[in-house]
């Protein structure tokens, strides 16, 4: 029978403590490991057993360093990361006591336990490979190339292209694995907002859309990148229980106040939606590519709750075009994910909503939250709208507003003014926020405008 040797490290006061604990059976459960190790540590330090906790670390299959203390994870880590040494299986633990802090380096343990040469361990302040619990990682550790990879187009893409009447019930959900989704609908807009830990195909967040303004040749044109062409569905007979064709009232109201596009084509195959605007309301060509991270064999990064929108605008004129892409998003923190939001910004769960501007190198974002909610409330979280801006680009904002007509007035005339309305929203009400990214596009050139819509609602109650 193979033995299990457990190396235990902890700090107690100013002292570093290392113990070797041998168990007779390599298949020992996590509970048995805890019992034997805690007993040794209590004897060695004089601590009470109830003040000692154990955890172990290993690198999971996405390369993330995980600290856990369950029997299931213990067996998984033991199977993958246990080191064979002279007929024994060697594992390493960290112990947390009432007076200890975790702090582990490869030097704290026998070098024979760490499978990575010490010269490699020095490359990082906390190299996961040096923690002893190692799942297979790529051998190539060189820095990734800065060259943008060539886009490969699906040869069967045309089979998933929808135009005309075929767009009526198109809704392709975009979102992370296990983190909710928002659908791109056949009108080019956003529907089925299922990101608040609740399933509801009719859930809708008003005042959340994209628009474009083009100034060229002395003229100025602006349009919402959404089409009302199929909003009249009185003659449409859907199958039972199907709601993908249902147009939210807020979408109809949006395009009754603001101009939309007449004709679009959508190519939709998860996790990518592509939209072409065909009817020429603005004197440029616009192509939208929307997608969520979806990386084979990488569930961690495929679970990032974000949708990325790339708007590629091509200027066919002989002169430079000044192009602004507008993104508008409602702060829906506090919404239950199903109730109808009235009069653009009114809902029982709203109140205390506020929007904050974040700026960092190459990115401008609006972070949306609700300070009135308790920390563990299922509706508590964050929503964000961000855009990537480069040298020469201009980003303007309307940080807090409650009327799309107010937003449109600024967007189509003087530009977004900045802060907007002040303070947290009143009870039963929220704010919208908007970003506009402006680029100068030379004649016969193209530019891509990138926006991101992200969310985080971690407290599920159902």
Characterise the protein shown here.
The relative contact order is 0.11. The longest helix has 16 residues, at 30-45. The protein is 11% helix and 36% strand. The chain is mostly beta strands and 462 residues long. Strand 21, helix 5 (404-412) and strand 22 (418-420) form a beta-alpha-beta unit. It is elongated, with a radius of gyration of 28 Å.
Describe this structure in a few short sentences.
By secondary structure, this protein is mainly β.
Strands, helices and their partners?
Elements: E1 3-12, E2 15-23, H1 30-45, E3 52-59, E4 65-68, H2 71-81, E5 83-85, E6 88-97, H3 118-121, E7 161-162, E8 171-174, E9 181-185, E10 190-194, E11 209-216, E12 219-224, H4 249-257, E13 264-269, E14 272-277, E15 285-291, E16 306-314, E17 321-330, E18 353-360, E19 363-370, E20 382-388, E21 394-401, H5 404-412, E22 418-420, E23 432-441, E24 446-456
Parallel strand pairs: 1-6, 21-22
Antiparallel strand pairs: 1-2, 3-4, 3-6, 5-6, 7-13, 8-9, 9-10, 11-12, 11-17, 13-14, 14-15, 15-16, 16-24, 17-23, 18-19, 19-20, 20-24, 21-23
What distinguishing features does this structure have?
462 residues; mainly beta; nine-stranded antiparallel β-sheet; 24 strands; 36% strand
> SS-based structural class?
mainly beta
Continuous helix count: 5
Order of helices and strands: EEHEEHEEHEEEEEEHEEEEEEEEEHEEE
| Distance, first to last CA | 46 Å
Q: How helical, in percent, are the residues?
A: 10-25%
- The averaged pLDDT comes out at 82
- Give the tally of β-strands: 24
Low-confidence stretches: 98-143
Strand content: 35-45%
| Main β sheet profile | 9 strands, antiparallel
Strand order of the largest sheet: 7-13-14-15-16-24-20-19-18
The Rg value, from CA coordinates, equals: 28 Å
Shape: elongated
Oligomer: single chain
């Amino acid at each position: 029978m193979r033995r299990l040797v457990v190396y235990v490290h902890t700090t107690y006061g100013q002292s570093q403590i290392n113990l070797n604990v041998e168990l007779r059976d390599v298949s020992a459960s996590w509970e048995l490991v805890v019992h034997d190790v805690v007993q040794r540590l209590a004897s060695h330090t004089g601590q009470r057993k109830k003040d000692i906790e154990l955890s172990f670390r290993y690198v999971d299959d996405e390369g993330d360093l995980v600290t856990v203390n369950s029997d299931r994870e213990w067996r998984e880590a033991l199977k993958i990361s246990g080191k064979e040494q002279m007929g024994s299986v060697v594992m390493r633990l960290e112990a947390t006591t009432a007076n200890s802090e975790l702090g582990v380096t490869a030097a704290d343990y026998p070098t024979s336990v760490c499978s990575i040469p010490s010269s490699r361990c020095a490359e990082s302040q906390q190299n996961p490979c040096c923690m002893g619990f190692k799942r297979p990682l790529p051998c190539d550790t060189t820095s990734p190339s800065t060259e943008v990879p060539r886009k490969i187009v699906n040869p069967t893409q045309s089979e998933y292209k929808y135009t005309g009447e075929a767009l009526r019930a198109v809704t392709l959900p975009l979102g992370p694995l296990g983190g909710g989704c928002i659908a791109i609908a056949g009108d080019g807009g956003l529907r089925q907002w299922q990101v608040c830990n609740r399933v509801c195909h009719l859930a809708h967040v008003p005042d959340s859309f994209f628009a474009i303004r083009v100034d060229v040749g002395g003229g100025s044109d602006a349009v919402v990148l959404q089409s009302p062409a199929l909003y009249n569905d009185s003659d449409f007979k859907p199958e039972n229980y199907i709601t993908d064709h249902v147009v939210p009232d807020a979408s109809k109201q949006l395009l009754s106040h603001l101009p939309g596009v007449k004709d679009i084509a959508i190519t939709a195959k998860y996790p990518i939606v592509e939209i072409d605007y065909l009817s020429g309301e603005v004197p440029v060509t616009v192509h939208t590519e929307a997608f969520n991270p979806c990386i084979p064999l990488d569930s961690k990064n495929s679970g990032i709750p974000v949708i990325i929108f790339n708007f590629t605008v091509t200027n066919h004129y002989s002169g430079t075009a000044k192009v602004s892409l507008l993104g508008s998003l409602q702060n829906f923190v506090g919404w239950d994910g199903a109730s109808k939001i009235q009069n653009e910004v009114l809902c029982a769960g709203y109140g205390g909503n506020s929007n904050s501007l974040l700026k960092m190198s190459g990115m401008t974002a609006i972070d949306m939250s609700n300070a009135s909610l308790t920390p563990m409330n299922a509706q508590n979280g964050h929503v964000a709208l961000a855009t990537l801006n480069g040298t020469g680009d201009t980003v303007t904002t309307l940080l807090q507003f409650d009327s799309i007509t107010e937003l449109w007035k600024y967007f189509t005339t003087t530009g977004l003014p900045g802060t907007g309305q002040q303070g947290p929203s009143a009870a039963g009400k929220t704010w919208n926020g908007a970003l506009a990214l402006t680029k100068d596009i030379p004649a016969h050139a193209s530019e891509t405008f990138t926006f991101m819509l992200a969310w985080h609602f971690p407290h599920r109650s159902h």
